[in-house]
Amino acid sequence: MQAHEMMIKQVYKVKESDTVRSVIERFIEHRISGLPVVNERNEIVSYISDGDIMRYIGKHRDVVVDSIYYVAVFKGDQEAYEERARRLLDLNVMEIGKKKVIKVSWDEEIENIAAILGKKQIKKLPVERNGVLVGIISRGDVIRHSFKSLM
Q1: Considering only Cβ atoms within 10 Å of each terminal Cβ, which end of the chain, N or C, has fewer?
Q2: Are strands 104-105 and 124-129 parallel, antiparallel or unpaired?
Protein backbone atom coordinates (compact mmCIF):
# COMPACT_ATOMS: atom_id res chain seq x y z
CA MET A 1 0.00 0.00 0.00
CA GLN A 2 1.26 3.45 -0.87
CA ALA A 3 0.91 6.82 0.86
CA HIS A 4 -1.71 8.17 -1.56
CA GLU A 5 -3.98 5.19 -0.78
CA MET A 6 -4.21 5.98 2.94
CA MET A 7 -3.39 9.68 3.32
CA ILE A 8 -5.88 12.27 4.48
CA LYS A 9 -6.36 14.59 1.50
CA GLN A 10 -8.00 17.46 3.39
CA VAL A 11 -4.94 18.85 5.15
CA TYR A 12 -5.22 21.62 7.72
CA LYS A 13 -2.26 23.92 7.15
CA VAL A 14 -1.00 27.43 7.73
CA LYS A 15 0.85 29.85 5.50
CA GLU A 16 4.40 30.95 6.18
CA SER A 17 3.13 34.49 6.81
CA ASP A 18 0.67 33.39 9.56
CA THR A 19 1.13 33.95 13.28
CA VAL A 20 1.24 31.32 16.00
CA ARG A 21 -2.20 32.60 17.06
CA SER A 22 -3.70 31.12 13.86
CA VAL A 23 -1.89 27.83 14.54
CA ILE A 24 -3.32 27.56 18.05
CA GLU A 25 -6.79 28.46 16.76
CA ARG A 26 -6.58 25.57 14.25
CA PHE A 27 -5.24 23.20 16.92
CA ILE A 28 -8.25 23.96 19.11
CA GLU A 29 -10.87 24.07 16.34
CA HIS A 30 -9.81 20.83 14.63
CA ARG A 31 -8.45 18.99 17.71
CA ILE A 32 -5.05 18.46 16.09
CA SER A 33 -1.48 18.81 17.33
CA GLY A 34 0.57 19.74 14.28
CA LEU A 35 0.35 21.57 10.97
CA PRO A 36 2.42 21.83 7.82
CA VAL A 37 3.47 25.37 6.94
CA VAL A 38 3.29 26.14 3.22
CA ASN A 39 4.33 28.95 0.90
CA GLU A 40 2.15 30.54 -1.80
CA ARG A 41 2.86 27.57 -4.15
CA ASN A 42 1.65 25.07 -1.50
CA GLU A 43 5.20 23.78 -0.99
CA ILE A 44 6.03 22.59 2.52
CA VAL A 45 8.48 25.02 4.13
CA SER A 46 8.10 24.15 7.82
CA TYR A 47 6.11 22.09 10.31
CA ILE A 48 4.79 23.38 13.63
CA SER A 49 3.63 21.14 16.44
CA ASP A 50 2.31 21.35 19.97
CA GLY A 51 5.84 20.40 21.09
CA ASP A 52 7.26 23.55 19.49
CA ILE A 53 4.74 25.61 21.45
CA MET A 54 5.48 23.76 24.72
CA ARG A 55 9.22 24.38 24.30
CA TYR A 56 8.58 28.10 23.81
CA ILE A 57 6.24 28.67 26.76
CA GLY A 58 8.02 26.26 29.12
CA LYS A 59 10.43 27.56 31.75
CA HIS A 60 13.97 28.09 30.45
CA ARG A 61 16.50 27.70 33.26
CA ASP A 62 19.87 29.40 33.61
CA VAL A 63 22.73 27.52 31.96
CA VAL A 64 26.26 27.70 33.38
CA VAL A 65 29.20 26.88 31.10
CA ASP A 66 32.34 26.33 33.15
CA SER A 67 35.71 25.80 31.50
CA ILE A 68 39.33 26.25 32.53
CA TYR A 69 39.48 29.70 30.95
CA TYR A 70 36.11 31.22 31.77
CA VAL A 71 32.67 30.80 33.31
CA ALA A 72 29.62 31.93 31.37
CA VAL A 73 26.07 32.14 32.61
CA PHE A 74 23.26 32.23 30.06
CA LYS A 75 20.18 33.61 31.75
CA GLY A 76 16.90 31.76 31.45
CA ASP A 77 13.50 33.40 31.45
CA GLN A 78 13.15 36.78 33.12
CA GLU A 79 9.46 37.15 32.25
CA ALA A 80 6.37 35.47 33.65
CA TYR A 81 4.73 32.47 31.99
CA GLU A 82 1.69 34.51 30.91
CA GLU A 83 3.93 37.07 29.23
CA ARG A 84 5.78 34.34 27.27
CA ALA A 85 2.44 32.86 26.21
CA ARG A 86 1.08 36.26 25.17
CA ARG A 87 4.26 37.10 23.22
CA LEU A 88 4.09 33.74 21.45
CA LEU A 89 0.69 34.51 19.90
CA ASP A 90 2.06 37.29 17.71
CA LEU A 91 5.19 35.47 16.53
CA ASN A 92 5.43 34.35 12.91
CA VAL A 93 5.10 30.55 12.57
CA MET A 94 8.51 30.40 10.89
CA GLU A 95 10.17 31.64 14.11
CA ILE A 96 9.35 28.46 16.04
CA GLY A 97 8.37 25.87 13.41
CA LYS A 98 10.82 23.18 12.32
CA LYS A 99 12.38 24.05 8.98
CA LYS A 100 13.81 20.59 8.39
CA VAL A 101 10.54 18.81 7.65
CA ILE A 102 10.38 15.04 7.49
CA LYS A 103 7.97 14.19 4.66
CA VAL A 104 7.23 11.39 2.23
CA SER A 105 6.44 11.12 -1.43
CA TRP A 106 2.90 10.21 -2.41
CA ASP A 107 4.08 6.79 -3.70
CA GLU A 108 6.02 5.81 -0.55
CA GLU A 109 5.28 2.29 0.75
CA ILE A 110 3.44 1.78 4.06
CA GLU A 111 6.27 -0.16 5.72
CA ASN A 112 8.68 2.72 5.06
CA ILE A 113 6.14 5.20 6.43
CA ALA A 114 5.72 3.09 9.58
CA ALA A 115 9.50 2.94 10.01
CA ILE A 116 9.88 6.73 9.66
CA LEU A 117 7.06 7.48 12.11
CA GLY A 118 8.52 5.04 14.65
CA LYS A 119 12.20 5.85 14.28
CA LYS A 120 11.79 9.64 14.21
CA GLN A 121 9.15 9.52 16.98
CA ILE A 122 6.79 11.84 15.16
CA LYS A 123 2.99 11.73 14.96
CA LYS A 124 2.35 12.81 11.37
CA LEU A 125 4.04 12.91 7.99
CA PRO A 126 3.17 15.41 5.28
CA VAL A 127 2.82 13.81 1.84
CA GLU A 128 4.01 15.63 -1.25
CA ARG A 129 3.80 15.06 -4.97
CA ASN A 130 5.98 17.06 -7.35
CA GLY A 131 7.11 19.19 -4.40
CA VAL A 132 3.56 20.20 -3.40
CA LEU A 133 1.60 19.22 -0.26
CA VAL A 134 -1.14 16.71 -1.20
CA GLY A 135 -1.93 14.93 2.07
CA ILE A 136 -0.93 13.89 5.55
CA ILE A 137 -0.52 10.50 7.24
CA SER A 138 -0.71 9.90 10.99
CA ARG A 139 0.35 6.94 13.10
CA GLY A 140 -3.34 6.08 13.44
CA ASP A 141 -3.77 5.98 9.65
CA VAL A 142 -0.94 3.46 9.36
CA ILE A 143 -2.35 1.30 12.16
CA ARG A 144 -5.89 1.35 10.72
CA HIS A 145 -4.74 0.43 7.22
CA SER A 146 -2.24 -2.18 8.44
CA PHE A 147 -4.58 -4.11 10.69
CA LYS A 148 -8.05 -3.56 9.19
CA SER A 149 -7.92 -6.75 7.14
CA LEU A 150 -6.25 -8.78 9.91
CA MET A 151 -8.87 -8.22 12.64
Answers
A1: C
A2: parallel
